[in-house]
Write a structure and sequence with these properties.
single chain, about 140 residues, alpha+beta, Ubiquitin Conjugating Enzyme, 2 domains, two-stranded antiparallel sheet, about 30% helix, globular, UBQ-conjugating_enzyme/RWD
Length: about 140
């Protein structure tokens, strides 16, 4: 038997957080190593954003676009590992201090957003109207 390659599952999703009366979404890219039983290997978590936002200098858990929280630093010592634990931890940390900030000066004009939607979705999705359905990338980030 040859050596099996570790397969990777990449999830792109938004984590919804609340702070006081504000609700906001943090777009993430999570890389999970599928050959690891019970997520023994810490998934890689990255911020997934464009030029309409920038990293909040007060958010201390991001380095080179990668997120590492205190729980993630001790991941191997935990018994109850899993995607739910990871997401709950991220929501908790993001609710204390959002990692991304919008700036009014950096907002993309609507014409550019429409162009970007055409590059992200297939022509069939655009014709059927499925490109801007709830849960799509643009609805999750805006």
């Amino acid at each position: 038997m040859g050596m099996q390659q570790n397969k990777v599952l990449i999830l792109v999703l938004s984590v919804i957080c609340k702070k006081e009366n504000e609700t906001y979404a943090i777009p993430l890219k999570i890389r999970i190593y599928t050959m690891e039983p019970r997520m023994t290997m810490l998934p890689d978590v990255f911020l997934f954003y464009d030029e309409t936002v920038f990293i909040n200098p007060d958010f201390k858990y991001v380095k080179d676009n990668r997120i590492v929280t205190p729980l993630m630093k001790n991941w191997n010592q935990r018994i109850d590992r899993g995607l739910k634990l990871l997401i709950d931890d991220l929501i908790s940390v993001f609710s204390e201090c959002p990692p991304l900030l919008h700036t009014k000066e950096s907002l993309i004009p609507n014409s550019d957003i429409t162009h970007r939607m055409h590059t992200l979705h297939s022509p069939r999705e655009l014709q059927t109207g499925k490109a801007d359905r709830p849960g799509s990338l643009w609805n999750g980030i805006s």
